[in-house]
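quick one before i forget lol
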Amino acid sequence: MPTLAAAEASNAAFSPSYIPVAVFAGGTSGVGQAMAEALARQTNGRAHIILIGRNAKTAAEILARFPKPADGDVDSDGWAHEFVACDAMSMRSVRAVCAGLRSRLQRINFLVMSAAGPKGNSMSECGETSEGLDNHLSMRYFSRYVYSKELLPLLVRARGKGQHAHLMTVLGAGFGAPIATTDLGLAEARRRTIKCLQGVMFSVAALKAMIRGVEYNDGLVAWFAAQHPDIAFTHILPGQVRTVGAVLDPGWLLAPLGWLMTRLRSLITVSQDECAQWMLYALLDGERGLFIRDSHGDIVSSHVFSPDHKARFVDDGSATARKAGVLNGVPMKGYGGSDATVAGLIAYTEQVLGDIK
């Protein structure tokens, strides 16, 4: 495990000859914001950084604090710091943002996805978006899938130029929970939500969605890493971070428990700026392949697909294809997918997203 000082030293060595293009989906708060700020400081503003989020006012305040390249610095042509508005609970909105970025960007070097919703840890709220998706999964999985699929051509271009090309999803890597095979969208779980005291809910469905999001992100990086073996894909655990979104909300019925857990977490959490150094350390590491990483950027497990490999996640009936924690026949610590469950997840995802026009 690298110390904080070691991570900061490693990050300080990042000095590319080109202007890096970094997109932070969820970059107006929490870990995503802190990572964007850390990259801006490290490059002295000599980067094209795009924050995607919902709050334009907050984004403007963040961008105003970014350092700017010195006037007359001829090596800084192409730098920009900008905000793009998006409601990540709407796949139509995410697709529109991706289309806009593809139309005007030549490449993307870093794509970081960290948005978990305004109440991403709420166990008292569950429901569906206007597009029929689970509220939690829309932010924690579906939007990230769309960003990945739609923006990967720009990462491919960056790699083709011999530059960094890294996709990172920040959520809950390393637990190795098997990917579900039934009720993938949690419609049945929502129907069975436990209700009490005139509709105030302790939602089993919400808790399931939070766990499923972690499982599904393992499948997401595995699927795309297999299709693009020359690019780095990381699912990383941020750990316990002091951010607004990290506050547990179990509903008012269990409010005392939530208050106690929040107080206890304050004793074991790190600031989002400290967390960002380890996340940035991981982002700038790893040239290609799939990486499952812990909260200090350490590699829990990794797999590099052969250059001629094509994604073939299928349920061929074999024990290997159905065994959780095995990728392409290789055991992976902290990874919960199997070739069969990833195939089922992606087929379901494509079907659901295909119905949203």
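fyi Residues 197-201 have pLDDT under 50 and may be disordered.
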